């Protein structure tokens, strides 16, 4: 029933994409590690720390850092390598992300030559384990208003880092509770009595022996729902002094006499520029979520192909559960969406790698916010579905899905709360990415929207020529890709225009309330946009695929993604006269038929993910 | 903004219901126990076993057992007492359910006087810890086809209990890995070479010293996603001999010479009658899921009322997160549904307590299947939502939601897989509960449906007179309860009639395929039915509430439940011409408005659940 082994290989190559070599190399490196089994928390943390060294020795961290410091200058490749870690132990993935992506990435992106020279090699080699200390207990999403202060003292040419109140403690900080020696601390920079907004300062938090530095208080966050191999902690600073050179001064500097200077005017703009350079973290989380989702689906599909339940009376045989429509309905649209998100992720990684101007950068930031939200929610939902689809077996740790569920749960929260991120996406769309919008308040947004035409023009992001062709020649058949694309585009345009009209009506006095009352509308607009971008990426991938058998299969998977997405929001299409009741029912029927058609291919589709077997060792997957 | 303390108390009394005294007593007993904190698995199991004794000493198990053996004969009360345990440690709740509900319940329901005399006191006192060994690795849902055998040997007047193949091992059995001394083993009863279907046999599995009995192999299921205080295990029997008297012989007996007799004809009917007597377990799980949901909502609402994020520009103050529409949308419809399910649960417990004929019993079994499925899915979804609504704090174990999530996850699977249960509900509806339908195959169902009128008559289950009045005098206003009830009824009737028409077309040859192709339709019919039954229970509860302030509040909560349920399935109402696009949008708008109206009452609504503060001790709930 399945396609040929060569067919699976062609499918896998299509998934491997631009960073195929990095991907295969990373799979090999990961495949050489051994799953930890059941460990107590401290043992587990020790195991993760040890494996991190194995990754360092295997060259994993080199990929993304500058060649002049021993790296490979491959930004896109570094995200792909991180993504592959998502097939393995997720605590290890997150710990790697904290050390090299967040900590190392901040030093690289926010620091200057001196910092790079001094720290990057030690960061890559793990000689200097570090933390990314941004979140505070009272400010998780609204990081622009963090309360930690870094006050410049010209007499000693030092910054004094301080935690002014309990809500300003740094919280959930990875690498803080056990291993970190240094932290990139985000704090309000004050010099000469003037606050210049949030900046990043390097603060040593532990001495060579592992004891907290004077004035630094460290607390363990304790057990968590998952990711217990990562040592998250809390940090308090009591007037801790660090040299002036510890300021990561690419976007704002303080002269020895205390004079502040910055290449970017405006506190808000500066802060969001700094945040923007850290976009790789968000993109990485979306990729890691994708890998975990693939692994859960691989386990559920394998089990669904062998587990039998209830007898088919005409043959007397017990029925393989994946032959039930309800089981297909659970797994196959989720599998199709996982494919779609994979290609959207690949395209986003390319955009990150190639970004060359401000407008592209802002579009990338918006894309990263949107895809991170959609991909991590998809992960949470799909892994839950896979757990349930495997029944009691899915609840046992030995079958791996329980761990995937627990570990990925926080992905919807960290690197930006999904609900907040989708609002960023909508703001970007409403302002056509003209400028950083992170610091526009509701009234600022309302004025901005009022100044714009509310006639939204959908800009196709990928494969423009192909999509133009598909749309212009399209019929109204449900399986016509051009029709599908038109539905996605039309919905985005309509939802966005309606939103713009609502927001324009706001006055200075009621702007907050108008925005708040439209919050569900805002989230819907962002979702509709992300869905469209994802579909375009899938269309482009089908078009790129040179193997005819694999391309034909991808084409059907793309149909299932498109139609199940329309089905999920068909109330909107009905409410807005885009689907007649008859046609809406036909969409559901078409999803059922696609499930039946793809069911014999399910195993091939998960095999093509190329997950190393070492990390799929579970009784249900045998 | 909230109602008076007296108002909260009136609300709580309304929730307390018919078993108010049992409920308050159980809350007091539970409130006297202390949460375990973080424990290793074996320590945790020991803690749970110890607390079980505290519950026994507190009289918890007496409630449901017969007075003649020292119990209190209060079946309904026993379910309510179990439900209250859901506010505490869920491993303890489940372990109590295994010992007294499943093991003790099976001895009580399937055994006869001799068994009761011999075992019930020892079961209540924990002198005899036991297991309920039904599920096998290869047969989790299709328990009618279990493979374990109990073969009668007239020479020694013993049953020989045997595990014939690896897939027939008993799996996920609570109390098996550490504490159980005896198991109720479900097995195919064979005597004189003839199989009489599944029966239950008491098999000692450990001796007084705790070592496995000869021929019994026990394996630990190992770590699980949650409920790690419960010792789930696997059991294999190698020709284990037990005396003839160990057969729980209420529904099938074997004479010393091997002659089989039963008061019920037909293997299938007999088996489903036996299963039916165990309905209390399913009802209890629905109740426990409700308590866990309430606790998660209480935590999320308390945190949502204190946590602030982003500044409101017109006042300069940081906004309390529960003031955001998106946050209200996450928590308040879920809270309303939790109220609705509470009242439906209460009504179901009453039906269990008062059941007096076969038809009522079958209706109860169907109700239990449906509410168990809907309540446990609601729990999984709502607890997930609460976790996300609390951000990073929600991920820390100290804030309790992580544990609730992990522990309740399997509720959608155990005591019947939800998807299978909803199919049972639909079968019951299609056959008007005329007979046990568990063993009707698709072709049997098709013939049955063909013989019936396909003109479904909705039978109101609760508060018939009130609902008749509401419906007959109803306008078309969205907040008119009569209109809401009509929508629920109309949807159920239409979906069910359409389903009946589809299934009637099946022939003997294609019956399986016709049923399989309609599986999503089947599930939808069951959901629509359960939703209606739940709404009716809520309507009855509002009507019963004598305190005007509490009644007015409940009335609004009921509106939110009804309209958010219609909103969630509004695609169906649009597809079937029940809602115009304009009106569908008005439903969404009304949900938003109800969220705003109920937001100041959110804290009162969760306070009225009466969760003991000992079990709400978390930094986010301070």
From TrEMBL, chains A, B:
Q: Name one GO biological process term.
A: lipid homeostasis
Cofactor(s) for this UniProt protein: FAD
Highest rank taxon of the organism: Bacteria
Q: Where is the Acyl-CoA oxidase C-terminal domain?
A: 492-621
Q: Where does the record place it?
A: Peroxisome
Task: State the UniProt keywords alphabetically.
Answer: FAD, Fatty acid metabolism, Flavoprotein, Lipid metabolism, Oxidoreductase, Peroxisome
Q: Which GO terms describe its molecular function?
A: acyl-CoA oxidase activity; FAD binding; fatty acid binding
Q: Which residues form a coiled coil?
A: none
Residue stretches making up the Acyl-CoA oxidase/dehydrogenase middle domain: 131-240
Q: What is its EC number?
A: 1.3.3.6
Q: Does the keyword Ligase apply?
A: no
* UniProt xrefs under InterPro entries: ACOX_C_alpha1, Acyl-CoA_Oxase/DH_mid-dom, Acyl-CoA_Oxase/DH_mid-dom_sf, Acyl-CoA_oxidase, Acyl-CoA_oxidase_C, AcylCo_DH-like_C, AcylCoA_DH/ox_N, AcylCoA_DH/ox_N_sf
Occurrences of domain Acyl-CoA oxidase C-alpha1 (ranges): 276-430
Q: Which residues form the Acyl-CoA dehydrogenase/oxidase N-terminal domain?
A: 45-126
Top-level EC class as recorded in UniProt: oxidoreductase
Q: Gene3D superfamilies, alphabetically?
A: Acyl-CoA dehydrogenase/oxidase, N-terminal domain, Butyryl-CoA Dehydrogenase, subunit A, domain 2, Butyryl-CoA Dehydrogenase, subunit A, domain 3
Give the similarity note. Answer: Belongs to the acyl-CoA oxidase family.
Protein name listed in UniProt: acyl-CoA oxidase
Q: From which organism does this entry originate?
A: Saccharothrix texasensis
């Amino acid at each position: 029933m399945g396609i040929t082994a060569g067919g699976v290989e062609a499918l896998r190559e299509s998934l491997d994409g631009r960073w195929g070599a990095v991907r295969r190399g990373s799979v090999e490196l990961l495949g050489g590690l051994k799953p930890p089994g059941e460990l107590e928390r401290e043992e587990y943390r020790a195991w993760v720390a040890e494996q991190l060294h194995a990754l360092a020795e295997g060259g994993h961290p080199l990929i993304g850092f500058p060649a002049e410091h021993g790296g490979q200058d491959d930004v896109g490749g570094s995200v792909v390598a991180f993504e592959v870690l998502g097939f393995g132990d997720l605590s290890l993935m997150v710990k790697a992300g904290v050390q090299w992506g967040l900590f190392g990435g901040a030093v690289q992106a926010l620091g200057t030559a001196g910092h790079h020279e001094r720290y990057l090699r030690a960061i890559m080699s793990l000689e200097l384990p570090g933390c990314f200390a941004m979140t505070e207990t009272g400010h998780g999403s609204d990081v622009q208003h963090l309360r930690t202060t870094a006050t410049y003292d010209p007499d000693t040419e030092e910054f004094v880092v301080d935690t002014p109140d309990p809500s300003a403690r740094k919280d959930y900080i990875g690498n803080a509770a056990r291993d970190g020696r240094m932290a990139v601390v985000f704090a309000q920079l004050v010099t000469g009595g003037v606050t210049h907004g949030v900046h990043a300062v390097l603060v040593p938090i532990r001495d060579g022996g592992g004891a907290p530095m004077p004035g630094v208080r460290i607390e363990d966050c304790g057990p968590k729902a998952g990711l217990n191999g990562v040592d998250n902690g809390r940090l308090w600073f009591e007037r801790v002094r660090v040299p002036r050179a510890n300021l990561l001064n690419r976007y704002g500097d303080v002269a020895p006499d205390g004079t502040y200077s910055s290449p970017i005017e405006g506190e808000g703009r500066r802060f969001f520029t700094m945040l923007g350079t850290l976009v790789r973290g968000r993109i990485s989380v979306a990729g890691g979520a994708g890998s975990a989702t693939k692994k859960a689906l691989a386990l559920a599909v394998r089990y669904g192909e062998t587990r039998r339940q209830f007898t088919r009376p005409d043959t007397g045989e017990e029925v393989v559960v994946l032959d039930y429509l309800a089981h297909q309905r659970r797994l196959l649209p989720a599998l199709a969406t996982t494919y779609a998100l994979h290609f959207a992720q690949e395209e986003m990684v390319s955009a990150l790698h190639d970004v060359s101007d401000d407008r592209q950068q802002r579009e990338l930031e918006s894309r990263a916010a949107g895809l991170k939200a959609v991909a991590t929610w998809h992960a949470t939902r799909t892994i839950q579905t896979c757990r349930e689809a495997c029944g009691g077996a899915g609840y046992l740790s030995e079958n791996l899905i329980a761990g995937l569920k627990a570990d990925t749960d926080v992905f919807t929260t960290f690197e930006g709360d999904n609900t907040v991120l989708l609002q960023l996406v909508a703001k970007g769309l409403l302002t056509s990415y003209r400028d950083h919008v992170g610091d526009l308040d509701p009234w600022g947004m309302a004025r901005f929207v009022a100044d714009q035409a509310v006639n939204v023009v959908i800009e196709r992001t990928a494969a423009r020529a192909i999509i133009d062709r598909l749309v212009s020649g399209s019929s109204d058949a449900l399986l016509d890709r051009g029709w599908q694309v038109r539905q996605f585009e039309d919905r985005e345009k309509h939802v966005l225009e309606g939103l713009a009209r609502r927001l324009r009506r706001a006055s200075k006095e009621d702007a907050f309330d108008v925005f708040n009352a439209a919050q569900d509308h805002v989230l819907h607009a962002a979702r509709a946009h992300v869905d469209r971008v994802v579909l375009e990426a899938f269309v482009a991938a089908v078009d790129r695929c040179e193997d005819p058998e694999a391309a034909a299969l991808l084409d059907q998977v793309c149909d299932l993604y498109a139609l199940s997405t329309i089905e999920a929001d068909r109330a909107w299409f009905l409410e807005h006269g885009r689907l007649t009741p008859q046609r809406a029912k036909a969409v559901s029927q078409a999803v059922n038929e696609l499930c039946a058609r793809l069911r014999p291919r399910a195993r091939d589709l998960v095999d093509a993910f190329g997950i190393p077997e070492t990390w799929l060792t579970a009784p249900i997957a045998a």
